[in-house]
Structures
1.
Amino acid sequence: MLTPSEQFMWIAIGAGLVMALLWVLQLRTKDAGVVDVGWAACLGTAAIFCGLSGEGDTARRVIIASIGGLWGYRLAWHLLTDRVLSGPEDGRYQMMREKLGSRINPVLFAFFEAQAVLVVLLSVPFVLAASDPRTGPSVFDLLGAGVWVTGLVGETIADAQLKKFKRNPDSKGKVCTVGLWRYSRHPNYFFEWLMWIGYALVATLAPWGWLAWTAPGMILFFVLKVTGIPPTEARSLRSRGDAYRQYQRTTSAFFPWFPKDDKTAPEGVS
């Protein structure tokens, strides 16, 4: 069994090495989207690693390894098949290449390794939960698992609704307002964040458990302000124009809520 500090050390070494190898891969493929696949897979692996090597209660270690590992590998597979293998490089990285030109690869190396640092920081709930010696499962463990399942089901439904919408030939150029997308412009991001709330709940009563809440806090910040909603909406405005502006006026950006005016919401899909 490993102490929390030893777990953090091995997670940092592993994530740093994986990101360096993926950076080398993108030199050949010219697709930096592999960093997103690696980020998700590293976090899933970190959860399983903590569950296997932690010093805490066995039941709690099984819970955190199961929900964290399933989330990470599911997301990694989705990103690999839906983005990296099925189309051109993600627009975010295309824009970086256009702006940086010949300087792109050193910048991408720093960016890839920054994702490794983020893996370590977001592993805090996994490490804390796996080190908690209290006999489990407790109410917080079960509540966290329940919230996580809710997030997984919601994200799966949102992804399926959007995918079905995109397959419809009549949806080209339209905005997705069907199903969960009627109540949030980014229900997939919301339910993803909800799963991180689940991890924090499982780790809450561990020593220093309050630190587990830094992970959903960071996820919320990045989704709302950095890599989630801002670039996604910028691309949607360029491709769908006034229809998306109307969608912005009527529909909550993140937290699901009833549209301000159903009649003015654009028909269609994304």
2.
Amino acid sequence: MGIFHAVILGIVEGITEFLPISSTGHLMLTAKLLGLTQTEFQKSFEIAIQLGAIFAVVALYWKTLLRGLDIWKRVLVAFLPTACIGLIFYKMAKRFLLANNGVVLWSLFLGGIFLIVFELFYQEKSEAVEEIKSISYRQSLCIGLFQSIAIIPGVSRAAATIIGGLALGLARKTIVEFSFFLAIPTMLAATGLDLLHSAGTFNKQEFFILSVGFLVSFFVAITAIKFLLAFIKRHNFVSFGVYRIIIAIIFWFFWMRK
């Protein structure tokens, strides 16, 4: 894996982290297209560069985060289920799920169908929660449970939290921004846990490659966040569901020819 690969993967991560299409799944599929082997470093790279995209949230919302004690309380409650499930299933997820492209494709495909069906039947209620500080702690915990499903690559952390939040009665903009904030402790913990186990095996070149991917994903994610906030003002997520189905089918045919 070289600098070119790190830049490409960083761009993919920055674009996909906050969209309901699975950044982990896209990183795995992109690595496949680039001919990269799923080494332990490759798996760690795909986890760690997600933190670069998360730092884009901090850069854009730092004032809100500094003053938002009520926000942090709800974010931390939502983070608890993910923390527990992540600790329990970390080794299994990294060893088996992060190396299984079939799981990614099925998750993208079925998740796309679910996203379309959900949006076709969903109607936002007039009493939908408009402020993050108005989210109840029960709702926060439930959103965290939804996010935990995304331990399966291809599900999409963003899709799981956003659909969960909408189903629980949150306004679309509210749950999208809450999903941004919830990503901060989630990816800090995921990256920290992985580096704790793996960083000792990295050489200087690998740390440099990781830094390149991190920085690229950070800058690209800033644009992606702004795009998503503008997009949800006029659109739902049906188009993302269609995209998930198409990309899964394309890759199935791609691998069937191999």
3.
Amino acid sequence: MSTIQVPGLLSFTIAILVFFAGANLNRLIPALTRWSIPEAVTGGLLAALMTLVAYEFFDIEISFALGARDMLLLYFFTGVGLNARVSDLLAGGKPFLILLALTLAFLVIQNLLSMGASEVLGLPQGMAILLGSTSLIGGHGTTIAWAPIVSSRFGLTNALEIGIASATLGLVVASLVGGPVAQYLITRNGLSGPRDEELTIGVSRDAVVGHEDDVSYISLLRTLLVTNIAIIIGYALHEIILEAGINLPLFVVCLLVAIVMTNSIPLLAPRLPWPTHTRGLALISDLSLNVFLAMSLMSMQLWGLSGLGLSLAIVLAVQTLAAIVYIILVVFPAMGRNYNAAVISAGFCGISLGATPTAIANMTAVTKIHGAATIAFIILPLVSAFFIDLANAAVLGFLVR
């Protein structure tokens, strides 16, 4: 077995090519666009399958340097924060609390399902924890953090491999089912989004050239400057928070810094140009998200799933079915049965099975076709990137005690 380590710049360049490959496939297969499958997901999965072929048939293991991916995550969430005005946050107050309660409830349901399925299948003790909210709602980061604890507590030697495999499959499934679920709800209920409102991320597919807010190098540089300043402050504040014993992800800190900046600086300096709800910020956020997602999916080592057999597939199928039923029968009605609720439903697939960027990518793919959903992009990242991590940590601490 020979190993190819792809360096950073080449990995970033390949990710762009992967995105364009996905965009072309979506254009050639209209069903992919109709069901709101993100271009980065289509291309990323294709690239992951190609690396799997290289591994299985040519004994070549390909791995990518992912430093640029982590930076893109900061740009993306900072952009979300810069778009979060107080008026939007206040409007999202009640929906935010409802979505938080729904997510917390599903976190418990997800762990109960994994424990029940593991008991029926006769899986080793401790494996249920890794097939529940640890890997699905928590994702790869939570899995890596908790796998050693599960391994030590239950003597499960391959805990990390099981957790990573579950998180990887969950990410793939979340990327594929979010758009179709939203499309089903939109079509069934005759919903549509506002056509006169700018998208939070990206530009709609039928956007016209000549818009009064057309992007120029000045607007892009201005937006990048503000974004970089927010990220730099986020880095500094993150160090202070860590020294205080509070473990918050860096992208959450950058998100909060951007929210504070966008709701204070324009008031203190009203004549200062600010990027909130501009096309430049939407494009930078869209670029960051798509390349991040392409890099995440193309770097999946699918061969790591082969040794875990049918049990993992069965448990994940149960979790996926439960998530879809919960979204259609609980989340969508509770969030108001309107267009925003349908977009949030697409995002909830990402929360429950994949990761926050996957949730945002699902929602972005829907809004590019059907119109903006501002409230969805405000409340979902706050729920999935901050509060739910704290709740998940508390639940996991109880399960492994």
